[in-house]
Every structure is written in structure tokens, then in C-alpha cells.
Amino acid sequence: MLRQISVAFLVLGCTSLSILASGQTAVSWKMKPSPLQTRWAKEVSPSNTLPEYPRPQMVRPNWENLNGIWQYAITSAGDQTPPASFNGEILVPFPLESALSGVQKTLQPDQRLWYKRTFNKPTAKGKDRVLLHFGAVDFNATVFLNGKKLGNHTGGYTGFQFDITDQLKDKGNELVVSVLDPTDAGDNPHGKQVLQPRNILYTGSSGIWQTVWLETVPAVYIDGLKMVPQVDQQQLDLRVNTPGNAAGYSVEAVASSNGAVVGTIKGKPNTDLQLPVPNARLWSPNEPFLYNLTVKLLYNNKVVDTVGSYFGMRKIEIKKDENDQERIFLNGKYTYNLGVLDQGFWPDGLYTAPTDDALKFDILAIKSMGFNTIRKHVKVEPARWYYHCDKEGILVWQDMVTCPNNSADARKNFEKENAATVAQCFNAPSIVCWVLFNEGWARYDQQRLTEVMKQMDPSRIINGHTGENYDRESPKDPNEKWKSSDLTDIHDYPGPGIAPALPGKARVLGEWGGVQVKTPNHQWNEADGWGYISIPAAAFARKYGFMNRHLKIFEEEGLSGSIYTEPFDVETEENGLISYDREVIKMPVTQLRQIHSAFVPPTSDVAAAFIVKDIDTTNPDNQYATLLEAYNKGKKDGPFLLQLAQMALRVNDKPNATKVSNDYIEQLKAPLTRSQMAFINKFTTSSRDKGFALLMDNRDQINKTLGQRQADARLMTIIYSEEIKPYVQDAAARPDWSKIEAKTKQYGAPGEEIFLRAKTIHLLNQKDWDNFAAAADQYVGKCAAYIAPNELNTYAWTVFENISDPTHLNNAANWCQHLLKADNNPAYIDTYANVLYKAGKKDDAIANEEKAVELAPSSDKKTYQDILDKMKKGEKTWK
């Protein structure tokens, strides 16, 4: 019955659906090239862009989808008014950086992204209102209609709406959206998105990335539902929210199963109601039964608004089993949460799945492999993702999107988005656990925020800190580590491992695994591919089975859940059970299901839509001799050279790796792609290599694209090896620094930086304190922004301990200023205070040491306090 009623609402909605409506013309949109593409990308077109109804738990018939072709422009972030002209077309709702957007550009923190499109006024009667909905816009969105500002929304993962009725005209309504998104350079929660993708961090998704749509509603309408299943009380707690003055209005809710009414309730809007659900069929992964729910809003007993919805009756809790172990119980039964860490990225759409079938495929794939749980990792998905989890039957641990840093604004944004996330996802029966912090990332006030989350939702498990063992500032007392949380949770790579037992808490393994199995021809960037450990395809089944046998031992000892990293490769992170393009499974699905059946029997058959091919378990490097012979006979096309160079490196044939890579690099032309940049950076090992000149000529772009100054690091490694190392290998050497400087000068900024660093470190190691201090001052003066804080701190501390000259001490105090701008670390403050004290600036020194004592972890407080006491007494703090 749920399917029938939901479809009925969707069909009604399609009567007003208009993708290329309201003055839009045919376009020449084309997907941009991508290193990988999923099978669903070919189904995407401007006239068929995520057409499904976007809000399955509150379906209303009168709606219009605004997905499709919009205009876009990129201007300076300071521009407050829409530009006079736009750069081109973008396919909404695919993020600006994605191939499917048709743009594939990175939005920089100092830029503003603009969108524009037109539409006609939807059909409305009498006092009807028209609402404009945005599923999600990352991060800061300002919306204009017909030249008037509607409002602003911050938060990249949750939806928002505007009542646009009074701003509408009959035809040609101009909708403009401006977006600011610093990605990882601001105080906005951004999950795994970064400007410079690498390792566990991936390409950003700026701007509109979920469906935009219009909806026609009555003057007073149903604005939201809040549902809490109460299995023991045989009822659904229900709240029907309406905006504005609801005097004279009432609500009626009807729950049905297979066409038969099972419960009804009448009452007032904006009040707590109890809808009877006697002898409920309980929702679980084995039987994901959903009740249909119809909610009506009445005025003077006349129906003015109706929405279709659904709910599941289930109960999640922590209880002791028959062996007195704290366990996770679902519907009164111990249920091992066998899960995966799902990141929700797509090679062609990034944060946005190409189609609804693609979105559903991931859930079907995870269930088909024998898992019953998904941990949705630092991302909030569109409502339809949770709908598919509800329908197919999978338990969801929903992460909060990580606090980005320790600033007051970041914490404010984090807490605001946490509340919005819980409110938006609250009704999904599949969600059984909220996850607050991950691995100590910008963790603060953990107990308070855990308790706040429990107050927001007492019906679910709260995981206050997953991977707490990775938190460097973790409390020493185990009883303090997960205070007020329902779980103890560690991460262990590759693992497995088990969290400690604490009263009232179940033990889980929040992340483990991370086994890289390469899938040739299905990799985002082979040159940068990685895993926590790497296993040949032929050995993976044996290794995975062995690891799971150990996991089973931990389960018998009390482990209640485990989250394997991960179901799908993500960009260069090749730890997935399935390739990033969802084409290749790295172990036959029958073997996976058999291994997992030791924990939970498969909760469904392998889905018909789960179409993947088994990985080739033969070693591709066995072909190396044959391919090398073809190369020596003159085969030199680019893809062949790219494959052969990687293979030569794997089989440790370094001479041919250099030769083949040089031939490949010689064919490259600007503009270079990210993959080409990574290849050049990896294979360039001397100034004689073809890539060296490309690194020199394109260093700024490569640094920006690859991040972590990778071009500069590679160049400096080569320059040091060839121009400096021969003269400083002997620790006692007294090189002619002026001659070395003359040699390194030809390389510009990288040459100057590595020369200054090498000179500074060599003099430090020789304990030539005065010359070291002078060299360090020159180095810091030119390169402070690139010196690691710990290294800079070492330089300053070395001066403090070994030099009394006021000039050098004052210089060291200036170095510390760079440190304190980067990190308010008590150890750095202590160094600064000691340097100031030795330089004779006692009052400033005491003030800073008091700050160090205040900020220090408990284990270091006594050390800093002893130093502070000496300063106050006028005693030496150095040896």
C-alpha cells in the first residue's frame, strides 16, 4: 500500500513537472571528461535530471522540479549584486566541480558562484502559497527573485525554503542564487571536501547539490512531521507542524497496512499526538516493513491539505545479553551491526549521485554483500537516500558533519548544523545511531554535546566519539573517554580490534580494514592510489576471511558492531570492496556473504540490480616482459606508456620506469590534468628527467592542485640531492655556503628555500650556535609560512637553551609569533614565554606562561607551573 499511495502522489506531481520550462531553451550541455564514469552518467540529460519527488516522507501532489540547465557565473567574493553577464550553463543540481555539472571548476574561497534561471508562476488558487525549496546548497546561499532578496541560508547539508508568493509574476520569474563556499579554508563544516584532494580527503562540491523545486500549498499548510515509534506502548508519537496562526484547524492521521486501516488519531496541529499501532509489524533489516501514513489538515472539518508519508516501528537500545555483556538490541533482540563506512562520493557527480537508481544501487550493493549497517561518514544525504534505506532495510549510523576547526564561529556552525541534521533526518526508521565526533577532529565539550544530542533524540543510540583512540587530547581515565555516550568505540587499521568494556555501554569497532586491492582500468589516479595495507587481488579473499575470523572472536568477547572501510573506492583511496565506478567487485559476492554470515545471516537475496564483474585475480604485472618488448619495438601511444611506466615501477625496473615515464611526459601538453600532474610529480627524480622542467614551469599550479606544496617538495628534494647533499654528508663538513648558494640560485624560490633550510639544519647539528641563529633568522624571514610548527619551535627553543645574545633571543621571539598565529598550542606558548624571559621581558613572559598553564593538558600542567614559579622568583629557567 505504501508503494501505491506514494506512486499516486508522485504521478499527480508530474502533471506540473517542467524541466525545461518557463522560457528555457534547448541547450548544448555536455558532461566534462572524468577519470572514471559510472554506468548511470549516460542517463543524465538536461530534460531528465533527478526528476523524482525529493521528499518521500511528506509527499504533496502540486510541485515543479527546477533541476536542469541554469546559467552560472563566478565573480569576486565581495560582489554583492548579480553580474551583468553569465559565464555559461551548468546542470543543476550537480556541484560546480563535478563532471556532470558541465563546468568542472573549483570554487576558490575568494570567489562567489552565481546561478540564474527563469520560470513561470505555478498554477495556484485563491490564497494558495508557492514555496521554493532547496535540498542543499554548500555553503552560504543568498537567494533573489525578480531582483528582490528573499533571504540567506548557511549550512551545506540541510534543506531550506522560502515563501515566494508575493514576489511572483505570471511569466519570466528570474531566480538568482549566489554562493560562497570556502570548502576547507573556512569555518564551515565540510566533511571530506577539500580544495586540494589527497589521501582521505576528496574533491569539493560547491553550490547547489540537491534538487531545487517549487510546491503549491494552501494558506495554512502542513510544514513538517515528527514521528517517534513507541514499540512498547504500541503507538506512534506524532506531531504535525503548521506555520502561522492555526486557530480553527485540526489534523487527522491514518496509518494503514496493505490497504487496511490500523490506527487513526485526530487532534490539534503543533501538539503531541499518539497514533495507535496495535500488534505492530516491526521494521528490521530482515523485514523492512513500513506503514503508510496519510495526514490531513482540516479547517472547520474541511480538508485543506494532505500529505502522504510512511513510518517504521522499531526500537533500538543497549541491554545486557544472557552473558551479562552490554549489547546493541533491535526490537528486543541482540543484533550485531555489521557495517561499512560509506562516504557518498561519485566519480562523475561528486556529492550528487547521477540518478536515483545510482543512489539506490549503493544501498542494494551493501545489502547484497551481506552487511546490515551503513555508517554514513561526515555527510548528510538527500532524503531519497534514507528512503531507500528505509525501504530496503539497512541500519544507519549517521555522522554529524565534522567541526572544521577550533574557532568560535566553527563551533557555532557545527552545533547549528547538528541540530538541523537531526531535525531533518529524524523520521527515518533506518537511522538508529547519531555519531557526534570522529577521531578527535576538532573535538570539544564532548560530554555536553553528547547530552544535548540525547535531549534532541532520546529514541536512538548516541555515539559520542567514534575512534576516540585517535584523539591526541583524549582523557587518560577510560571512564571519561566516552562520557554520556551509549557506545565505546575505537578505530583499528587494518585491525580488527575491540573497544574497552564500560558499564552501560556497548562496544563497537567504528572503523577497521582499509585493505587496498587495485583494479586496473578502474582507478581514479593510479599514481596516487593507496590503502592502509595493499593486497594482490588473488590474495584478498583469504586475507579478508582471516581478518573476519579474528573479528568473530572479538564479537564473542562482547563486540556489538564493526564498520569496515569501505564499500567503494573513493578517488585515490582504494580501500573499497567495489571500485569507485561501481563496476568491479574485488571478491565474489557469494564469498563475502558467506564470510559475513558468521555475524548475521544475509537479510536479503543478492539484488537483481547489483550488476558488477568479478576482479581479474591474475597479476597484471605478469605481462610486463611482453609489454616492454612491444615498447622496445616502437609502441609509444600515451595510454600504453602510462600503464607500462606504472608497471615498471611496481616490478622495480627503475631504469625502464625512468625511460618510459620520460617518453610519456614528453607527450604531455598544457593544460595538465590533475592525474598528469600527479604522474609527473611521482616519476620525476632528477633534474635530467623530462618532468623537471614541467615542475619548474608549472609549480604554482601543481602546488595548488595537488596540495601540500608537492611540486616544491619534489623540486627541493632533487635540488638538495644534486647540489647540496654532496657537500654536507659529513656532519663535520665546513662547506663554502656561498658556492652552494650560487648553484641553487638558478632554481629560483625552491632553490633558495632548500639552501636556507639545509644551511640552518647543518649549523644546528654542528652546534655552531651563533651562525645557526643568524641562518635560522634568514630562513624564517623568507620561509616562515612553509616551516612546520614543530620545526620552528625547535629553532626557537634551541636559541633559548644555548644563546644569551639579546639580538638572537629577540629574533627567536619573533619566530614564535609565527607559531602562535598557526596554533595556540601550550607548548609553543611555553617556548615563547621562556625566550621572552631570557631576553629580559619578565612581565610578558609571566603572562604567557600563565596562559600555557591554563591551556595545558593535565599531564603537563605541573611542568609549566614549575617554570612559572621560577619566573616569578626571578630564577633561571634554562640549564
TrEMBL record:
GO terms for molecular function: hydrolase activity, hydrolyzing O-glycosyl compounds. Residues 220-314 form the Glycoside hydrolase family 2 immunoglobulin-like beta-sandwich domain. Residues 110-188 form the Beta-mannosidase-like galactose-binding domain. Residues 327-463 form the Glycoside hydrolase family 2 catalytic domain. Keywords: Glycosidase, Hydrolase, Signal. GO terms for biological process: carbohydrate metabolic process. The keyword Thylakoid does not apply. This is Glycoside hydrolase family 2. InterPro entries: Beta-gal/glucu_dom_sf, Beta-mannosidase-like_N2, Galactose-bd-like_sf, GH, GH2_Domain-Containing, Glyco_hydro_2_cat, Ig-like_fold, Ig-like_GH2. Residues 460-483 are annotated as: Disordered. The lineage of its organism: Bacteria, Pseudomonadati, Bacteroidota, Chitinophagia, Chitinophagales.
